[in-house]
Design brief:
The radius of gyration is 23 Å and the shape is globular. The chain is an all-alpha fold. The protein has ten helices and no strands.
């Protein structure tokens, strides 16, 4: 699955529906382009080839179907239902899975939780994504500010920026990321984050510049603007 050949089918399907309904209001909606659904289902040959390995894994892991009528031995509370046979309370683990605040100590997992949709197959809203990007940007700038020159904080910040950029490209929400990059450069060059110009060189070498129209047709940043921001002046 080459990264450049995978797309978010939900976003493209909505755009396709809007365009087709505007141009051909009386026609039935056509099927999505094959390139959008190419990786939606695994190839049958791959599934068939994996069957023996899957059965071996089931055997080695001693996977068994859980009898829903069988009660576990764990302590029960009112309306809590039987304790899980595995000893792991999945409901408790997922109860507070939706994050509303990204912290410096656990930024990337919390960022992923914050942008995850509340329902399966749903698409996170732009406001939700923009807020997550804003908080992640604030955390990243603070990591850079507190890092010693050339310290491990730079690597942490670069991983966080990489995650932000990946989400921005995949979900085609470029503006919050591009605004973060522009602001980051201004703060670094002005000294607002301390003497951190060496970080900007690492940032450029990593290729984390603006998302331009060359990379995504939905970006409002042209190639010249992207190049100007990447130049260290």
């Amino acid at each position: 699955m080459p990264f450049e050949d995978t797309y978010n089918p939900a976003i493209h399907r909505i755009n396709q529906a809007v365009r087709q309904r505007a141009i051909y209001p009386d026609q039935e909606l056509t099927e999505p382009a094959p390139i959008l659904t190419k990786y939606q289902y695994p190839p049958r040959s791959l599934v068939a080839d994996a069957e023996s390995a899957l059965q071996k894994l089931i055997s080695l892991a001693d996977v068994k179907k859980v009898d829903e009528r069988k009660k576990g031995r764990g302590k029960r509370t009112r309306d809590s239902g039987p304790a899980p046979l595995s000893g792991i309370n999945i409901d408790a683990l997922l109860k507070d899975r939706k994050k509303t605040k990204i912290t410096e100590i656990n930024a990337i997992p919390e960022f992923k939780q914050m942008i995850s949709p509340s329902e399966p197959d749903a698409v996170p809203g732009n406001a939700q994504l923009a807020e997550a990007m804003k908080q992640m940007g604030e955390v990243t700038r603070e990591v850079i500010r507190k890092s010693s020159l050339g310290g491990t904080g730079y690597d942490i910040a670069l991983r966080q920026i990489s995650e932000m950029r990946t989400v921005a490209v995949n979900l085609e929400i470029h503006e919050p990321y591009n605004e973060f990059v522009t602001d980051l450069k201004e703060k670094i060059l002005s000294g607002a984050l301390g003497e951190r110009k060496d970080f900007w060189f690492k940032f450029k070498r990593a290729g984390f510049g603006l998302i331009s129209q060359e990379e995504s047709e939905y970006s409002e940043v042209n190639d010249k603007q992207a190049e100007e921001v990447s130049i260290h002046t």
